[in-house]
Structures are given as structure tokens and as C-alpha cells.
Amino acid sequence: MLIEAAPAVTRVLVLRDTSMSPAGLSEAEATARALLITLEIIEANNPDQFGDAFAAAVARGANGVATFASPFFNYDRKRLIELASRYRLPSIWEATAYVRDGGLLSYGPSFADMYRRSAGYVAKLLNGVKTSDLPVEQPAKFELGVNLNIATALGLAISATQLARADEVIE
Q: Which of 17, 41, 62, 117 could form a disulfide with 70, with the two C-beta atoms 3.0–4.6 Å apart?
């Protein structure tokens, strides 16, 4: 999605919270190889590392930014968005809150949908179903957010196709 919005991106700073599972890392690397994109993976577990991480990645040629999902990153999302803006990096994040706060793109599970679906779990528990009998479910609905103000500031033209797929567009 980031490459569709910003085709000139060739090297992506990927922040990864070391307290989170590395799930998805090998898939991200495989996708990057297929798209001929280089990933600059930097592990961060302290907000004081963010500025140095961005500066080092940009010095090595990073021209885009993405993060793995993390409550830690979400808590400090305004700082991360500010750094992406300072370095003029097209960005993609895990949730639409990032787009509302000034990020370029977001793509991730619909939290509202997950909360609604969790009510079914609660009903089953209240009706005596054992927790061990409940299936583990993955998110069923994902949302794309686009901030056209940021796209304009970065000199990007978001395609009509990407806008049509967007669940939320900030103008």
C-alpha cells in the first residue's frame, strides 16, 4: 500500500518493538524482496531511541517508514508521526488514529469490528462455554486510512483506486 501511494520509495525504515513477537517479520522481508524494496529494520523499546533511529535510517537512504503493531508505538504515535513529517517520509501505520494524527496511510484490523465480535465471546462465556472451547479468531475486517493533506504536503498523488478502497479519507 505504501509503494502504491509513494512509488519512489525504495528503502523503508521499519520500526519493531522488541517486546512484541517477531511475527510477520519474515513475511515483510519476503514482500520487500518481491517488490525490490530494502527494509531498514530498527528495533526500538524506548521513545528516546526514535530520533536516532529515524536519523540513522535516513542517513542510510530510507525514504519511507512503517511500523509493526505495538501498544508502545501507539502510545507515542504523535512523536513517530512528527519524525516522519520532519524527514518527509511517506508512512504507513497500523490504525486510522495515526492518519487522523497526521500520518499518510494506515492499514490494519478494524478495532470496532473486533469489539463487536468480542460480544459473541462474552455471550458464550456467560452461557457456560469453557474458555478452552472457544476458537481463536483472527480479525475479519481491515481498514485503510488515507490522509490527503499529508499526501499533498509530500507531493504524492493518491490513486483513485487506492482512494476507492479507503475506509477513511482525511481531506
A: 17
Question: What's the CA gap between 81 and 60, in Å, rounded?
Answer: 20
Distances (CA, A) of 27 to 8, 24, 30, 57, 135: 22, 5, 5, 21, 24
**Radius of gyration (Cα) for the chain, nearest Å?**
18
The CA distance from 92 to 107, in Å, is 7
d(CA 99, CA 139): 20
- Cell 462474552 sits at which residue? 122
Average pLDDT over the chain, rounded to whole?
92
C-alpha distance across the termini of the chain, in Å? 19
Cα separation values, 115 from 57, 106, 138, 166, Å: 36, 19, 12, 21
Question: Which residues neighbour 138 within 8 Å (Cβ) at sequence distance 6 or greater?
Answer: none
Q: Is 77 exposed, middle or buried (0-12, 13-18, 19+ CB in 10 A)?
A: buried
User: pLDDT for 126-138, tens place per residue?
Assistant: 999 998 888 888 8
Phi-psi region of 128 (alpha: psi -120 to 50; beta: other; left: phi over 0): left
Task: Give the three cell numbers for residue 129.
Answer: 462455554
The string of pLDDT tens digits covering residues 86-131 is 999 999 999 999 999 999 999 998 888 888 888 888 888 899 999 8
